[in-house]
Amino acid sequence: MAFSEFRPLDEKSLIEYIKAVPALSSKIGNNLDDIKIQEVGDGNLNFVYIVVGSAGSFVIKQAIPYIRCIGESWPMTKERAYFETLALREHGRLSPEHVPEVYHFDRTMSLFGMRYLEPPHIILRKGLIAGTEYPLLAEHISEYMARTLYFTSLLYNSTTEHKRAVAEFCGNVELCRLTEQVVFSDPYKVSQYNRCTSPYLDRDAEAVREDNVLKLEVAELKSMFCERAQALIHGDLHTGSVMVTHESTQVIDPEFAFYGPMGFDIGAFIGNLILAFFAQDGHADQVNDRKTYKEWILRTIEETWNLFHKKFIALWDEHKDGSGEAYLPAIYNNPELQRLVQKKFMEDLFHDTLGFGAAKMIRRIVGVAHVEDFESITDASKRAECERRALEMAKLLLKERRKFQAITEVVLAIRKLQS
User: Does pLDDT of 1 surpass 60?
Assistant: First the structure.
């Protein structure tokens, strides 16, 4: 077997590889004469190949032992492919309509093959930049989050099952450390990887580094991220990790997955929608002022949380007498107490969501790895103006998250900052 040890694949060796793996070659009818291969990795971490033949298609994703966009100076474990596959399979089992199927995994080669999400699927972030409405987005993403978070938590599982699963994912420590660094540390100090729209935001970036209250709050979130094994989270659920059409919503790229705080996933998604909202003015033109679209984004933010809340509680009610050990039925044995427990749980989760969402927003403006929503605004002063508003909103959310009681209040605060 030519692939008994790790090596990065190129198009030529990929064909050899597919030939040697029936689980893949059968997907394209065992006919490799007319296959087309396209490398589409976004350049941050991995190699991603789309393989299309006359009889079928799939995607191959291979992890390499360093961060691709920075180079070999920043090594990175290729074991992340194992955890990504594990998370795709587990989340796919829990939410099969919204997670593409894995066909093949090879630990030695740090690669897996999975369903190709064919056009018109596009990355949600690109759709948001283009100003496209997705009527089912909130419905679908809330379903995915409710199911994956509820069914991997102690609300559903015994502590024995939970600890076993936590232990398995503890191995993904390097990617967790990367998040700890880029989300909770770098933006709050001088770091070689930080950047912002300079010189316009230099003072704003400095203000973040000098803000004592902000640092106290982010320390609390960091300790929760590192210590709280609440559920199997995707770990990087931004709008670049979701592929969409008008009818379909598919979550990809869970290589940062581990057992962490639920609010980190919900916050990442909502925080990225808020970034998309503030970027719209930079994409407005004579033909389209984007006002209607901004209203759609605000509605989507509101619906995402409200639908998640409703679905999560419904799952909890349905399984309240099951084997989940967080709230034993023998103790939480009357409707009033159950309501109190759920109310407290969801309030805390809402505040975690706002805090983590805000931290994710800040890192995208003054940290490493920015978002295309802003980066594609060519006029730097206009871009900085959009980013500054988003940064103000993020700081407000991070510091005062406990004052917000409902998502409608958050949307109100976004509107206020916008005017």
Answer: no
